[in-house]
Protein backbone atom coordinates (compact mmCIF):
# COMPACT_ATOMS: atom_id res chain seq x y z
CA UNK A 1 0.00 0.00 0.00
CA UNK A 2 1.33 3.44 -0.98
CA UNK A 3 0.77 6.51 1.19
CA UNK A 4 1.91 10.13 0.77
CA UNK A 5 2.03 12.80 3.44
CA UNK A 6 2.08 16.24 1.79
CA UNK A 7 3.11 19.07 4.10
CA UNK A 8 2.20 22.62 3.15
CA UNK A 9 4.36 25.64 3.73
CA UNK A 10 4.78 26.40 7.43
CA UNK A 11 6.21 25.00 10.67
CA UNK A 12 5.43 21.60 12.16
CA UNK A 13 6.55 20.78 15.69
CA UNK A 14 5.97 17.02 15.79
CA UNK A 15 8.43 14.26 14.85
CA UNK A 16 7.31 11.57 12.40
CA UNK A 17 7.56 7.82 12.95
CA UNK A 18 7.48 5.61 9.86
CA UNK A 19 6.85 2.08 11.06
CA UNK A 20 5.94 -1.09 9.13
CA UNK A 21 4.97 0.73 5.94
CA UNK A 22 5.03 -0.69 2.41
CA UNK A 23 5.57 2.58 0.54
CA UNK A 24 5.57 5.95 2.26
CA UNK A 25 6.43 9.46 1.02
CA UNK A 26 6.87 12.63 3.07
CA UNK A 27 6.84 15.64 0.77
CA UNK A 28 7.18 19.32 1.59
CA UNK A 29 7.06 22.54 -0.41
CA UNK A 30 10.81 23.16 -0.37
CA UNK A 31 13.73 23.83 1.95
CA UNK A 32 12.97 26.73 4.27
CA UNK A 33 9.29 26.68 3.32
CA UNK A 34 8.20 23.46 5.01
CA UNK A 35 9.99 23.27 8.36
CA UNK A 36 9.94 20.53 10.98
CA UNK A 37 11.03 22.09 14.29
CA UNK A 38 12.08 19.16 16.49
CA UNK A 39 13.13 18.90 20.12
CA UNK A 40 15.07 15.60 19.64
CA UNK A 41 15.85 12.77 19.45
CA UNK A 42 14.42 12.11 15.93
CA UNK A 43 13.02 14.22 13.16
CA UNK A 44 11.84 11.32 10.98
CA UNK A 45 12.43 7.86 12.47
CA UNK A 46 12.21 4.52 10.68
CA UNK A 47 11.20 1.44 12.63
CA UNK A 48 10.23 -2.15 11.89
CA UNK A 49 9.84 -3.18 8.25
CA UNK A 50 9.73 -0.32 5.77
CA UNK A 51 9.46 -1.32 2.12
CA UNK A 52 10.14 2.16 0.76
CA UNK A 53 10.49 5.64 2.23
CA UNK A 54 10.98 8.88 0.31
CA UNK A 55 11.58 12.23 2.02
CA UNK A 56 11.85 15.35 -0.11
CA UNK A 57 11.70 19.14 -0.20
CA UNK A 58 11.67 20.18 3.44
CA UNK A 59 13.83 21.44 6.31
CA UNK A 60 14.40 19.62 9.60
CA UNK A 61 15.70 21.78 12.47
CA UNK A 62 16.75 19.51 15.31
CA UNK A 63 17.02 22.22 17.94
CA UNK A 64 20.55 21.27 19.01
CA UNK A 65 20.32 17.49 19.39
CA UNK A 66 19.22 14.27 17.76
CA UNK A 67 19.11 12.78 14.24
CA UNK A 68 17.22 14.36 11.36
CA UNK A 69 16.34 11.16 9.48
CA UNK A 70 17.38 7.68 10.60
CA UNK A 71 16.83 4.78 12.94
CA UNK A 72 18.40 2.60 15.58
CA UNK A 73 19.94 -0.62 14.29
CA UNK A 74 17.18 -3.13 13.64
CA UNK A 75 14.92 -1.53 11.06
CA UNK A 76 14.58 -3.41 7.76
CA UNK A 77 14.47 -0.87 4.94
CA UNK A 78 14.12 -2.04 1.35
CA UNK A 79 14.39 1.34 -0.36
CA UNK A 80 15.24 4.82 0.96
CA UNK A 81 15.42 8.23 -0.74
CA UNK A 82 16.27 11.61 0.79
CA UNK A 83 16.16 14.38 -1.82
CA UNK A 84 16.49 18.15 -1.42
CA UNK A 85 16.23 17.89 2.35
CA UNK A 86 17.89 20.39 4.68
CA UNK A 87 18.92 19.17 8.15
CA UNK A 88 20.54 21.49 10.67
CA UNK A 89 21.49 21.90 14.29
CA UNK A 90 21.55 18.25 15.39
CA UNK A 91 23.93 15.44 16.29
CA UNK A 92 23.51 13.57 12.98
CA UNK A 93 21.88 14.73 9.78
CA UNK A 94 20.83 11.64 7.80
CA UNK A 95 21.70 8.08 8.83
CA UNK A 96 21.27 4.74 7.06
CA UNK A 97 22.25 2.58 10.01
CA UNK A 98 22.21 -1.21 10.01
CA UNK A 99 25.40 -1.65 11.99
CA UNK A 100 24.25 -4.12 14.65
CA UNK A 101 21.01 -5.43 13.16
CA UNK A 102 18.47 -4.84 10.42
CA UNK A 103 19.20 -3.83 6.83
CA UNK A 104 19.30 -0.84 4.50
CA UNK A 105 19.22 -1.49 0.74
CA UNK A 106 18.90 0.75 -2.30
CA UNK A 107 19.73 4.02 -0.54
CA UNK A 108 20.09 7.36 -2.32
CA UNK A 109 20.81 10.59 -0.46
CA UNK A 110 20.87 13.33 -3.08
CA UNK A 111 20.99 17.12 -3.27
CA UNK A 112 20.57 17.62 0.46
CA UNK A 113 21.95 20.46 2.61
CA UNK A 114 23.26 19.26 5.97
CA UNK A 115 24.97 21.73 8.27
CA UNK A 116 25.87 22.59 11.84
CA UNK A 117 26.04 19.07 13.23
CA UNK A 118 27.15 19.36 16.83
CA UNK A 119 29.73 17.38 18.77
CA UNK A 120 33.17 15.95 18.09
CA UNK A 121 33.06 12.66 19.99
CA UNK A 122 32.01 9.30 18.56
CA UNK A 123 28.25 9.18 18.00
CA UNK A 124 27.82 12.86 17.26
CA UNK A 125 28.83 15.46 14.72
CA UNK A 126 27.96 13.37 11.62
CA UNK A 127 26.51 14.93 8.49
CA UNK A 128 25.60 11.81 6.50
CA UNK A 129 26.21 8.43 8.15
CA UNK A 130 25.91 4.90 6.78
CA UNK A 131 26.71 1.51 8.29
CA UNK A 132 26.23 -1.79 6.44
CA UNK A 133 23.95 -0.15 3.87
CA UNK A 134 23.95 -1.81 0.43
CA UNK A 135 23.57 -0.13 -2.96
CA UNK A 136 24.28 3.26 -1.44
CA UNK A 137 24.67 6.56 -3.30
CA UNK A 138 25.54 9.83 -1.55
CA UNK A 139 25.61 12.48 -4.27
CA UNK A 140 25.28 16.18 -4.94
CA UNK A 141 24.97 17.15 -1.29
CA UNK A 142 26.32 20.24 0.43
CA UNK A 143 27.69 19.84 3.95
CA UNK A 144 28.96 22.58 6.25
CA UNK A 145 30.36 22.65 9.78
CA UNK A 146 30.02 19.01 10.78
CA UNK A 147 31.84 18.49 14.05
CA UNK A 148 33.19 14.96 13.56
CA UNK A 149 32.69 13.66 9.99
CA UNK A 150 30.73 15.20 7.12
CA UNK A 151 30.26 11.86 5.30
CA UNK A 152 30.94 8.69 7.29
CA UNK A 153 30.82 5.37 5.45
CA UNK A 154 31.34 3.32 8.58
CA UNK A 155 31.13 -0.29 7.42
CA UNK A 156 30.17 -2.71 4.66
CA UNK A 157 28.96 -6.27 5.26
CA UNK A 158 32.05 -8.36 5.78
CA UNK A 159 33.14 -10.14 2.61
CA UNK A 160 30.61 -8.34 0.40
CA UNK A 161 31.00 -5.27 -1.82
CA UNK A 162 28.83 -2.53 -0.44
CA UNK A 163 28.47 -0.91 -3.86
CA UNK A 164 28.87 2.53 -2.30
CA UNK A 165 29.23 5.73 -4.35
CA UNK A 166 30.16 9.10 -2.81
CA UNK A 167 29.86 11.49 -5.74
CA UNK A 168 30.00 15.23 -6.42
CA UNK A 169 29.43 16.41 -2.87
CA UNK A 170 30.65 19.80 -1.66
CA UNK A 171 32.00 20.11 1.87
CA UNK A 172 32.88 23.43 3.47
CA UNK A 173 34.30 24.48 6.85
CA UNK A 174 34.51 20.90 8.14
CA UNK A 175 34.91 21.02 11.94
CA UNK A 176 34.88 24.79 11.65
CA UNK A 177 33.23 25.09 15.05
CA UNK A 178 35.89 22.81 16.62
CA UNK A 179 39.03 24.38 15.20
CA UNK A 180 42.64 23.21 15.28
CA UNK A 181 43.12 20.40 17.78
CA UNK A 182 45.49 18.27 15.66
CA UNK A 183 43.15 15.23 15.56
CA UNK A 184 42.52 13.20 12.41
CA UNK A 185 38.74 13.55 11.99
CA UNK A 186 38.38 13.69 8.24
CA UNK A 187 35.50 15.21 6.30
CA UNK A 188 34.95 11.95 4.38
CA UNK A 189 35.71 8.59 6.00
CA UNK A 190 35.66 5.21 4.30
CA UNK A 191 36.20 2.70 7.09
CA UNK A 192 35.83 -1.09 7.18
CA UNK A 193 34.28 -1.02 3.73
CA UNK A 194 34.59 -2.82 0.41
CA UNK A 195 33.71 -1.62 -3.08
CA UNK A 196 33.56 2.16 -2.64
CA UNK A 197 33.91 4.97 -5.20
CA UNK A 198 34.74 8.50 -4.01
CA UNK A 199 34.60 10.73 -7.08
CA UNK A 200 34.16 14.37 -8.03
CA UNK A 201 33.88 15.69 -4.48
CA UNK A 202 35.12 19.07 -3.28
CA UNK A 203 36.46 19.60 0.24
CA UNK A 204 37.35 23.22 0.94
CA UNK A 205 38.84 24.58 4.13
CA UNK A 206 38.20 23.00 7.47
CA UNK A 207 40.16 21.03 10.02
CA UNK A 208 41.00 17.40 10.74
CA UNK A 209 41.74 16.22 7.17
CA UNK A 210 39.65 15.61 4.06
CA UNK A 211 39.58 11.83 3.48
CA UNK A 212 40.45 8.80 5.61
CA UNK A 213 40.54 5.21 4.34
CA UNK A 214 41.03 2.81 7.21
CA UNK A 215 40.25 -0.50 8.85
CA UNK A 216 39.47 -1.37 12.43
CA UNK A 217 39.80 -5.15 12.68
CA UNK A 218 37.39 -5.34 9.74
CA UNK A 219 38.50 -5.46 6.10
CA UNK A 220 38.76 -2.29 4.01
CA UNK A 221 39.43 -2.97 0.34
CA UNK A 222 38.79 -1.90 -3.25
CA UNK A 223 38.33 1.84 -2.91
CA UNK A 224 38.64 4.20 -5.89
CA UNK A 225 39.30 7.90 -5.18
CA UNK A 226 39.13 9.80 -8.45
CA UNK A 227 38.88 13.40 -9.61
CA UNK A 228 38.35 15.07 -6.24
CA UNK A 229 39.52 18.54 -5.16
CA UNK A 230 41.06 19.19 -1.76
CA UNK A 231 41.85 22.83 -1.00
CA UNK A 232 42.42 25.29 1.83
CA UNK A 233 43.17 23.05 4.80
CA UNK A 234 43.52 25.04 7.99
CA UNK A 235 45.92 22.88 10.02
CA UNK A 236 48.75 20.39 9.63
CA UNK A 237 46.65 17.19 9.28
CA UNK A 238 47.08 15.60 5.80
CA UNK A 239 44.29 15.87 3.27
CA UNK A 240 44.28 12.09 2.80
CA UNK A 241 45.22 9.50 5.41
CA UNK A 242 45.38 5.85 4.32
CA UNK A 243 45.80 3.03 6.84
CA UNK A 244 45.25 2.24 10.46
CA UNK A 245 46.42 4.65 13.16
CA UNK A 246 48.37 1.84 14.78
CA UNK A 247 50.40 -1.14 13.58
CA UNK A 248 47.95 -3.31 11.57
CA UNK A 249 47.07 -6.77 12.87
CA UNK A 250 45.87 -9.03 10.09
CA UNK A 251 43.24 -6.92 8.27
CA UNK A 252 45.16 -4.46 6.10
CA UNK A 253 43.83 -1.65 4.02
CA UNK A 254 44.35 -2.91 0.47
CA UNK A 255 43.55 -2.39 -3.20
CA UNK A 256 43.23 1.41 -3.00
CA UNK A 257 43.57 3.63 -6.08
CA UNK A 258 43.96 7.41 -6.02
CA UNK A 259 43.61 8.79 -9.55
CA UNK A 260 43.57 12.36 -10.83
CA UNK A 261 42.97 14.21 -7.57
CA UNK A 262 43.90 17.87 -7.03
CA UNK A 263 45.50 19.27 -3.86
CA UNK A 264 46.19 22.89 -2.95
CA UNK A 265 48.07 23.79 0.22
CA UNK A 266 49.02 27.26 1.44
CA UNK A 267 52.17 27.44 3.57
CA UNK A 268 52.19 30.33 5.99
CA UNK A 269 54.98 29.58 8.44
CA UNK A 270 53.57 26.29 9.76
CA UNK A 271 55.31 22.97 9.06
CA UNK A 272 52.56 21.14 7.20
CA UNK A 273 52.14 17.38 6.93
CA UNK A 274 51.92 16.00 3.37
CA UNK A 275 48.86 16.08 1.14
CA UNK A 276 48.75 12.26 1.25
CA UNK A 277 50.06 10.14 4.10
CA UNK A 278 50.05 6.40 3.45
CA UNK A 279 50.62 4.99 6.92
CA UNK A 280 50.22 1.31 6.04
CA UNK A 281 48.51 -0.80 3.41
CA UNK A 282 48.91 -3.22 0.52
CA UNK A 283 48.52 -2.73 -3.22
CA UNK A 284 48.10 1.06 -3.19
CA UNK A 285 48.21 3.09 -6.43
CA UNK A 286 48.67 6.88 -6.42
CA UNK A 287 48.59 8.35 -9.92
CA UNK A 288 47.86 11.40 -12.07
CA UNK A 289 47.44 13.77 -9.14
CA UNK A 290 48.33 17.46 -9.01
CA UNK A 291 49.95 18.81 -5.85
CA UNK A 292 50.06 22.60 -5.62
CA UNK A 293 51.96 24.10 -2.71
CA UNK A 294 51.78 27.88 -2.45
CA UNK A 295 53.99 30.07 -0.32
CA UNK A 296 57.73 29.90 0.29
CA UNK A 297 58.41 30.01 4.01
CA UNK A 298 61.66 28.05 4.26
CA UNK A 299 60.05 25.10 6.06
CA UNK A 300 59.93 21.55 4.70
CA UNK A 301 57.08 21.01 2.26
CA UNK A 302 55.93 17.46 1.49
CA UNK A 303 53.45 16.27 -1.12
CA UNK A 304 53.25 12.47 -0.61
CA UNK A 305 54.67 10.46 2.30
CA UNK A 306 54.86 6.69 1.97
CA UNK A 307 55.04 4.98 5.33
CA UNK A 308 54.79 5.99 8.96
CA UNK A 309 57.54 4.87 11.32
CA UNK A 310 55.04 4.50 14.17
CA UNK A 311 52.38 2.55 12.21
CA UNK A 312 54.41 0.46 9.75
CA UNK A 313 57.19 -1.61 11.29
CA UNK A 314 57.67 -4.43 8.78
CA UNK A 315 57.74 -4.63 4.98
CA UNK A 316 54.47 -6.59 5.17
CA UNK A 317 52.78 -3.52 6.68
CA UNK A 318 53.50 -1.43 3.58
CA UNK A 319 53.89 -3.37 0.34
CA UNK A 320 53.07 -3.09 -3.36
CA UNK A 321 52.87 0.70 -3.44
CA UNK A 322 52.91 2.24 -6.92
CA UNK A 323 53.03 5.92 -7.90
CA UNK A 324 53.26 7.52 -11.32
CA UNK A 325 52.08 10.48 -13.38
CA UNK A 326 51.84 12.88 -10.43
CA UNK A 327 52.65 16.59 -10.85
CA UNK A 328 54.31 18.65 -8.12
CA UNK A 329 54.15 22.45 -8.12
CA UNK A 330 56.07 24.27 -5.40
CA UNK A 331 56.64 28.02 -5.16
CA UNK A 332 60.26 29.14 -5.12
CA UNK A 333 63.32 27.72 -6.88
CA UNK A 334 62.85 24.47 -8.77
CA UNK A 335 64.11 21.45 -6.83
CA UNK A 336 64.56 23.46 -3.64
CA UNK A 337 66.18 21.48 -0.84
CA UNK A 338 63.17 21.88 1.48
CA UNK A 339 60.57 20.44 -0.92
CA UNK A 340 59.71 16.75 -1.08
CA UNK A 341 57.77 15.16 -3.93
CA UNK A 342 57.87 11.75 -2.23
CA UNK A 343 59.19 11.18 1.28
CA UNK A 344 59.77 7.69 2.64
CA UNK A 345 59.22 7.03 6.33
CA UNK A 346 59.00 3.44 7.52
CA UNK A 347 59.87 0.02 6.09
CA UNK A 348 59.86 0.94 2.37
CA UNK A 349 63.49 1.10 1.27
CA UNK A 350 64.96 3.52 -1.24
CA UNK A 351 65.86 0.77 -3.70
CA UNK A 352 62.29 -0.53 -3.68
CA UNK A 353 60.86 2.96 -3.96
CA UNK A 354 62.94 3.66 -7.06
CA UNK A 355 61.35 0.67 -8.77
CA UNK A 356 57.78 1.51 -7.72
CA UNK A 357 57.75 5.28 -8.29
CA UNK A 358 57.97 6.92 -11.70
CA UNK A 359 58.53 10.66 -11.83
CA UNK A 360 59.23 12.91 -8.86
CA UNK A 361 62.08 13.09 -6.40
CA UNK A 362 62.34 10.57 -3.57
CA UNK A 363 63.57 11.65 -0.16
CA UNK A 364 64.33 9.27 2.69
CA UNK A 365 63.33 10.60 6.10
CA UNK A 366 65.92 10.22 8.84
Summarize the structure in words.
This protein has a 35-stranded parallel sheet that branches. It has 366 residues and is an all-beta fold. The chain has one helix spanning 350-356; strands at residues 2-6, 10-12, 16-27, 34-37, 42-61, 67-70, 76-77, 80-90, 92-97, 103-110, 113-117, 126-131, 133-139, 142-146, 149-155, 164-167, 170-172, 188-191, 194-199, 202-204, 211-214, 220-226, 229-231, 240-242, 253-259, 262-266, 276-278, 281-287, 290-294, 301-306, 318-324, 327-330, 339-344, 357-358, 362-364.
Strand content: over 45%
Q: How would you sum up the global shape?
A: elongated
Q: Which whole number gives the mean pLDDT? A: 91
- The residue fraction in helices comes out at under 10%
How far apart, in Å, are the first and last alpha carbons? 67 Å
Classify the secondary structure makeup into a structural class: mainly beta
Radius of gyration based on Cα positions: 21 Å
Present the secondary structure layout.
Layout: E1 2-6, E2 10-12, E3 16-27, E4 34-37, E5 42-61, E6 67-70, E7 76-77, E8 80-90, E9 92-97, E10 103-110, E11 113-117, E12 126-131, E13 133-139, E14 142-146, E15 149-155, E16 164-167, E17 170-172, E18 188-191, E19 194-199, E20 202-204, E21 211-214, E22 220-226, E23 229-231, E24 240-242, E25 253-259, E26 262-266, E27 276-278, E28 281-287, E29 290-294, E30 301-306, E31 318-324, E32 327-330, E33 339-344, H1 350-356, E34 357-358, E35 362-364
Parallel strand pairs: 1-3, 2-4, 3-5, 4-5, 5-6, 5-7, 5-8, 6-9, 7-10, 8-10, 8-11, 9-12, 10-13, 11-14, 12-15, 13-16, 14-17, 15-18, 16-19, 17-20, 18-21, 19-22, 20-23, 21-24, 22-25, 23-26, 24-27, 25-28, 26-29, 27-30, 28-31, 29-32, 30-33, 31-34, 33-35
Amino acid sequence: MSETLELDEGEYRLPYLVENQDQYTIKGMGQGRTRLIIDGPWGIQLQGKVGSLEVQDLTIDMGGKGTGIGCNSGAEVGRFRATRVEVLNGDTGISANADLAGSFRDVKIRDCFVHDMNGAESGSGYGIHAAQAMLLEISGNRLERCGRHSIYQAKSPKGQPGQVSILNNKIFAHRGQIGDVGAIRCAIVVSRSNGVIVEGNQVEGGFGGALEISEDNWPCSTVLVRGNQFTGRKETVPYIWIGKQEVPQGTPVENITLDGNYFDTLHNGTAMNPDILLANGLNIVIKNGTHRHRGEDGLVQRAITLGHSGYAKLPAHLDRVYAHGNTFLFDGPQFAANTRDYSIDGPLRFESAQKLIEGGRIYMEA
